[in-house]
Amino acid sequence: MGFLTGPHDPAVRTDSRNDREDRVSTSTERLDALRGGAAPVDHNARTVAALAGNPGCDRRAVLDAAGISKRDTAVHLGHPAPFGQSPFALARARSFEELVKADRCAHLLRLLRETLGLPIPAIAYVDVPQAGGQATRELRHARTRKELRLAAESAVRDGSGDGTLVDHPLLTLPVAGHEVYLDPAVLAVQAGGRFHIVEIKSFAVIDGAADSAQVAAASRLSAVYVYALKAMFAAEGIDPGLVSHEVVLVCPKDFANHPTATLLDVRLQLAALRRQLSRLTRIDRILDRLPSDLTFSLEQSPAELARAVRTVEARYAPECLSTCEMAYFCRSDARGCGSLEVLGRVTRDDLGGLDSVDAVLDLAAGDRRASSEHAEIAEQLHHVHAIYRAHATAEAVVA
Amino acid sequence: MSVVTSYARALAVREGRAQPIATVRHLHLAADPLVFIPLRLAGEAAAPLGAMVGNDPARPHLLVVPQPRNRDLRFAFMAELARIMLPYIEGRAAATETVPGKNERERYLDAPQVIVPGRGAVEFVRLLGRSTRFRRPDGPYPVDPAVPVLGQWLTYLYERTEFAGSSALVPMTEALSLHWATGQSPMEDANLATLLAWVCPPPGRTGQEAAAAAEDPVLWPPAGPDTDPGFDARVLRPAIDAYDASGSPEPVREALRGQLEPTWRLMWRAVELLRGLPEAASVGERWAMDRDRYTREVARLAEGGPPRGRRDRAGSAAARLWDMESARQSYDAQRAYDDPLVMAEHRATGKAFAGEVVHVDRERTILLPGGKKPVSRPLVTVRTADPVRLAPGKKVFSAHRRRQSGEIVESDGGLVVVQLNDQLAKGAGVPGVGDAVCFTELDLGGRIRPGFPAAEETPWTHGGPPAAYEPTDEDAEEDWS
Ligand code: SF4
């Protein structure tokens, strides 16, 4: 598979082959140089899902494409990110998954039949044995491919055929030139001729409703698996359309430990992911604008690293705080230059088109003339300023 | 959302501290509110880990679950919580007043007010209510009789938050954000410590510096219900292991005390800040609504009213939705009428205008369509600098004489002519030349709810008449693992 291409995605098959390969090798060298000798970070489904977090940000695109650890970079810059997972949450997730998968997925098979009404007359359970180590990853991946191919062939041949449940599958996805292994807590199930990804999550569905932020995160994650599965099918010459965009989400019901299943439509998340992955493959355009000796090596001093990072344009927004390890560094820069972005999208929309705190306040006070495109917001601000002065300054700000 | 708030946020950045966006307090503040800071075990939907609760800043009650996975300990925690919360909640049912009118009734003069750190805690209150209200003191899994009662009250408190303007269960970060705009984003405002850092930065520091310091979870532990993952790994897990080994809850108590005390102090600091603002004119009216609902709930529970079902029925859902809409509408309008800074937003967007009366035609009369006698319809001309976007014929209300309505006759070049339509007895309601006035299209509401079919008449399109909700044994025995 070509370097730096998205998985077999029509959207990225635009360049002619030679052209692409030439460009690819120069980009690869550039990206390796940017990383400055460090080993590329190991992506996983969660980090791949996060790629779609701030698609407009060049800084993030370059760091991700080069496989640079944003976490280590942020630490070196003196702005460590506040991310972490509680050991209790991890333990809970593990024990719920074990429960669902106990006895060769007995619970799960029942759920797929009952809850989803999937027409599964008989299901073959196939386990791709887990074993550690890089070498066996290849084996597991090959085995996964084989099992899925067999299942697909039988599905195509018999119309619907019997179901197949593949446990511990190992999928891969090329992200910015590196094969990413997706070692999922998920399974792929073939039923009625369609393949579904099964995602097991330990957040509760209470009286038919779950925390929407958690559901959204699960959707983004599942979309990565769906995407990888489609890619694998395409590579095997099987119709990727056999992979359903409906994911089976298994969660505990109410306050008990009993699993319940729901179908989750991840089309939107797939589209976002596809856009971002293909964007990473077009990283050249960003690289072309960067100085040729640029490096993000952690060997340099924090000040030098900060200078290097700043040569790539960022697009900070408060949402970065929950999606990107660089957030504290980028926020501090955005604040430093008086950007309005730090105040959030609502404020930016309210103050349509203005980009700095100074611009807002100077226009409001009449200390600056508005350009014609900002005439309307300037007039409104001027007005607000007058009313605000009349009422707010009379009120003592609580000390 | 609001140009005024956004302007004030920008100003906060430049000034280095939060800026006021209200001149009065838009919520009721009880003389002794109950502050409640619940914590939950990470990864669990509703497993309580601990709480700090009380209505005396000097005497917080600390409750902990030394092994949060133990079901009995969870119910023991809920029983202990009930022993603190129920006397406070039920104790408000004392003196009453008679509310006159068509629907004459008695109403308690007081009602409970519970203040929690933020939206996450409100949601946790809902889950705690949901996980306890169906329990029974008898049967296969008996619990302390106070537990299901607390469950009903927590459910009641949560449901009040669905109505704009209720002060029964108040998320503190939202209460503060209603009155101050910080120089950070709304997302960051959900952190009580950083929000307060902006509102009252320590001397010699800007809000930004103070907020950055307050982001350190070691100095300022999260206000819950979720704890800091680092704390979970380094402090809490060893403390729980110690309990498992020795049976002593002390290590967990001490760990949680350290997590909760800073937030406890912040909560009371915030209460004092809000108390420093004079109460807005309509707050009493809205609090009366909370007292009304509280009175009804006390009576319902006294009659052995069953816990609310797991889901709303179609009929009551439609009525509730209507009530929620109407509460939202009057709340938005009332705040604008009560507070010139809130009205500023409507003036800036042309939905209201303020100015000085420059001409009055007091004697003007017109003949209403189909009428025989001319009626008084005075004209008032107002000079305003506001960008008026109210077309002739538009119905408006006077911000100063509430509920007096009129309509725009013409509006041109900063002069607006308004015809007054009511509250004109003996010319009393007509302003004089030189008076400051403000007119707005905002309607204070107070409409009567249209009749929704009673539960037993629910149309078949909505599932037909529901079976009355009877809590089942299954509900009562539901796992809480
Ligand atoms: S935190 Fe910085 S690098 Fe990350 S997405 Fe936001 S702006 Fe880009």
Description:
- The complex is a heterodimer of chains A (399) and B (481).
- Chain A is α/β, with parallel strands linked by helices and 399 residues long.
- Among the domains of chain A are: 87-277, no CATH class; 342-398, no CATH class.
- Chain A has 15 helices and eight strands.
- In chain A, the strands form two sheets. Chain A has a six-stranded mixed beta sheet with strand order 1-2-5-6-7-8, with helices on both faces.
- With 481 residues, chain B is an alpha+beta fold.
- Chain B has two domains: 3-316, no CATH class; 352-440, Elongation Factor Tu (Ef-tu), domain 3, CATH 2.40.30.
- Helix content of chain B is 40%, strand content 16%.
- Chain B contains 14 helices and 17 strands.
- In chain B, β5 (96-99) and β6 (105-108) form a beta hairpin.
- In chain B, α2 packs across α4 (146-160), α3 runs antiparallel to α4 and α12 (314-338) packs across α13.
- Chain B starts with a helix and ends with a helix.
- The model of chain B has no long low-confidence stretch (mean pLDDT 90).
- Chains A and B meet through α5, α13, α14 and α15 of A and α1, β1, α3, α6 and α9 of B.
- Residues 54, 57, 59-60, 314-316, 320, 324, 326-327, 330 of chain A line the site of iron/sulfur cluster.
Number of domains of chain B: 2
Query: What spatial order of strands do you see in the largest sheet of chain B?
Result: 10-13-16-15-14-17
Summarize model confidence as the mean pLDDT of chain A: 82
Tell me what portion of residues of chain B adopts beta-strand conformation. Answer: 15-25%
Low-confidence stretches of chain A: 1-17, 394-399
Q: What pattern of helices and strands is seen along the backbone of chain A? A: HHHHHEHEEEEEHEEHHHHHHHH
Major beta-sheet overview of chain A: 6 strands, mixed
Largest sheet of chain B: 6 strands, antiparallel, barrel
Radius of gyration of chain B: 26 Å
